[in-house]
Amino acid sequence: MDGETGKATASWESGLLAPVDRLRLDRADSPTPGLVEGTEPGAGQKSAIFYHAQSYEDLTAEAEKEAQRASEPHGSEGHDGEEFSTLVGKKSTEERLNSDTSSESRGKEEDVSSEAWRSHKKHVFVLSEAGKPIYTRYGTEEALSSTMGVMMALVSFVEAEKNIIRSIHADGCKVVFLTKSPLVLVGVSKTGQSEKELLRELQYIYYQIVSLLTLTQLNHIFQHKQNYDLRRLLAGSEYLTDNLLRRLERDPGLLLSAVTCLPLASSARDVVSSSLQAAKAKNLVFSILLAGDRLVTLVRKKDQFLHHIDLHLVFNLVGSSSSFREGEGWTPICLPKFNTAGFFHAHISYLEPASELCLILVSTDREDFFNMSECKQRFMERLSKRSAYQAMKEALKCPNYSVAQVGIPELRHFLYKSKSSGLYTSPEFPEVYQSDEEQERLMGLYQDLHSCLHHPTRPLRSFYRCSEAENLLAWVTSGFELYLCFSPMSTKALAVSAVNKLLKWIRKEEDRLFILSPLTY
Amino acid sequence: MSTRKASLTDKQAKNGTSKYVLERCASINEYYDIAFKVMLLGDSAVGKTCILVRFKDGAFLGGNFIATVGIDFRNKVVDVDNLKVKLQIWDTAGQERFRSVTHAYYRDAQALLLLYDITSKPSFDNIRAWLTEIKDYAQKDVVIMLLGNKSDMAAERVVKTEDGERLAKQYGVPFMETSAKTGVNVELAFLAVAKELKHRATQQPNEPKFKIHDYIESQKHRSGCCSLG
């Protein structure tokens, strides 16, 4: 491993990333085009679609705040905020059990389950504060009730000492705890992921559950009946959590806290957006058009922003349920980053039964089904008259691009995220990463780089790493995050010059790869 | 299109005008004379979506259980006595957490197909609760039909046909056992409802009343013949 900070940046601070004539005024004025938030390739023109602070820290900060809050009443010693912004603060209890006791305690779990169950790389458990099982990724909740009881005991035991359990490290296993009253989430991982990454994933699972029930309802239920079996209300939704966990392993969007777009000529995208904009209704807050896991366009009510987490939850709902394929779906959905207290109602339908294009109309009114249905009709009528519909269907035939288009022979794959727009772009996986295992391995490498760049105490700005199968470069500025994967034959100098070339290419293609002019109603 | 219109005016001239028949509309590619909303209700996993898919596409959704999310709205146009009847069918999620959204659309429905699973006693026991809900939220004159689904699974049966019949009689609703897998009585269930609704909407004062109970009795296939004795 070879980490370095800041050093590499100097080489490209001098040059513009794209010919001046292609840059919009405000971008050209920037002293370091592309390096400052808002001027990087892919940054939107007017306003972002998402909340502005859509960084990765955004997700974990909350947990830290809560930890801080929880420990404050007992504030035993003076602390400065900085100390608390680190994940494993001094006050957090890090229980290090030796491998003996660990294998013993895990031995009890094995009684109810097989060797195969134990060998899963990552387990996720959700339980109530009364220790009742709510969700397990593998196996059945019933069989694990005693295990979850133990987990709850650990949480309570440490809490009784006026402290918070954050993680247990034992024998190549990380056990991470996230207490989000009235729920407790536990992740058990054998992957190399950092605690912070694992915590972030648990946070996603928490939001998934909240999106099904709202936090208000959750609190209400457990206030009235502490030992309520929440599975009763979550019945039939387990697959959503299962799928979300799979996405967390495979989808760069969840890693980057960003969303990717269907590559589409901006002229066509603008027509689609304006058609959606025209099909508005009183209670309509967001109109979202998806092509599989890619955003085609998103139109929102003025001053209302969608958080990328909420959007990923919508992606997960739509992608996991075949029941929207035909007909029109109507379902309550809580967007927890928008408001944990209430439900929106989403009208979900595919533009054509066999199409990948799915329209989601989010309304505030439960009784709005027919209004939303009419909005869709109006959108379809408008759209079918334009050539943009055809262009969109054409674009769907090749929803991805090859890394060869960039023209850097050693470059195998990359992830580029524009921070100000919250959008990312990435080419299809090349030949060498065709198998699922290889793709997951590459994602794992990106995850490693990501956690180094976002290390709670010693974040890196850039990072070059050589390994047997590939060389990797990661670089973060205030404007973007970039992860590149090169063939193992390439050199560091080559990688550094490739960044410049790639950024120029992205700038050239940004009209197509990103949504530069998001609309509001 | 013009010939279709002409034939309709002919028919109307014969029948006299009915206020409902005038609601003649053209959706994107299907013409219909009259539209009704039908809702599928019942516990989770009794086969509501399967019944709908069997009726709409003639297929059986085998394999894994896929829970419906919220409610799902689909259309099917059927012929009833030479009239194109569009059934707008609400397929609902059986899960408790979707109850409030289902309630909001009860009153729009003109007919309710209430399902239980003959291999699940709890789903049958809950029928009374469903009927109470229907009374609370649905229109007063809503057409209700009770269906015992999965009649093909004779070996796992725990609810006897007579139990279903008795319950249906008690509430005065028509009843039959269906199988989304084999298709037994599925078409009949929807068609009987469509017929009843069509008769209600277009009935002339001197025309004999359509009797849904009699119609079903004359048409339905009995599945559990042995238990009927």
Automatic annotation (TrEMBL), chain A:
Residues 410-510 form the FUZ/MON1/HPS1 third Longin domain. InterPro entries: FUZ/MON1/HPS1_longin_1, FUZ/MON1/HPS1_longin_2, FUZ/MON1/HPS1_longin_3, Mon1. Residues 122-244 form the FUZ/MON1/HPS1 first Longin domain. It comes from the Eukaryota. Residues 282-381 form the FUZ/MON1/HPS1 second Longin domain. Residues 62-82, 91-111 have a biased composition (Basic and acidic residues). GO terms for cellular component: Mon1-Ccz1 complex. GO terms for biological process: protein targeting to vacuole; vesicle-mediated transport. It holds the Pfam family Fuz_longin_2. Residues 1-114 are annotated as: Disordered. Transmembrane segments: none annotated. Plays an important role in membrane trafficking through the secretory apparatus. Belongs to the MON1/SAND family. This is Vacuolar fusion protein MON1 homolog.
Automatic annotation (TrEMBL), chain B:
GO terms for molecular function: G protein activity; GTP binding; metal ion binding. It comes from Cyprinodon variegatus (Sheepshead minnow). It comes from the Eukaryota. Its EC number is 3.6.5.2. The keyword Membrane does not apply. GO terms for biological process: protein transport. This is small monomeric GTPase. It catalyses: GTP + H2O = GDP + phosphate + H(+). It holds the Pfam family Ras. The keyword Nucleotide-binding applies. It is an enzyme of class 3 (hydrolase).
